[in-house]
Every structure is written in structure tokens, then in C-alpha cells.
Predict the structure.
Amino acid sequence: MKDQRFTLGDKCHIFFLSFFGVGNLPKAPGTFGSLATIPLILLLKYLNTSFTMLLIIVFTLLIISSFSAHYIQNKFEVSDPSWIVIDEVLGMLTTWLFVFPATDYLSLLSSFILFRLFDITKIFPISWCDKNIKNGFGTMLD
């Protein structure tokens, strides 16, 4: 990494992008980031979040995450580091949109498995985005 000095702002970006530190786990951070989203989904269900509100949440997180990832990746000259798992959170929330408002075990398990399968295999057009969009938005899309 180019600049090893972390400002308080950098630490806040990193804490957010790593989904409160989950991305710093030594093994399978993407899988754990996806799993860590399940309590968030259950909380959103408990709060009776509407489909429209969930769309707003996902879109807002996408925008904030894209700018945050772009800033950190530029500052430290890294490209899509594995500790950034907020994209897995967004992916799980997006997957939940397809079964919304279901939160039974089968729906959550199948959403998790399908999301991880697609996230790992990166079928087209995601594979194209992964190879060609090298900024914060590309990190979120892959």
C-alpha cells in the first residue's frame, strides 16, 4: 500500500467497508461477510421494512460504498482487496429482494448459497465488470 498513515476518516471507511471488521477475518472474508448480513436481514424484517425502503437502503449503500471504496483503493493503491465485504452485504440484500419478505431458514439458506455461488463464479456480465471497471463502483458490482 502506498500510504500507511491512517486518518480517523480512513479508519471509518475501512470499518464500514469491512462491515464492522468482518472482512478482516483471516479465512473466507466474503463468505463471512455474506453470513454477517443475515442478522441485518432479520433486523430489517423485524422492523417491518417495506420493499420500497429496502430498495432505498440498497441504493444508498451502493452509492456510499462505491465512493468509500474508490477513496480507499486510490489512497492505498489497492484494487478490490478481499477485506472489503460491503459488496457481499449489498449482494445478499439484493438477493433478498427476490424472496422479500421471506426470512424463513430455507429462504435465507438458499439466498446465501445462490449468492455465494454467483459471487464466486462471476458469470457474465459480472465477470466483465470485475475485469474492466477498476474503481469503487466496479468493486461493488463484482
Summary: The chain has a mean pLDDT of 92. The helical segments are 8-17, 29-46, 51-75, 86-97, 105-121, 126-132, 136-141. The CA atoms of residues 26 and 118 lie 22 Å apart.
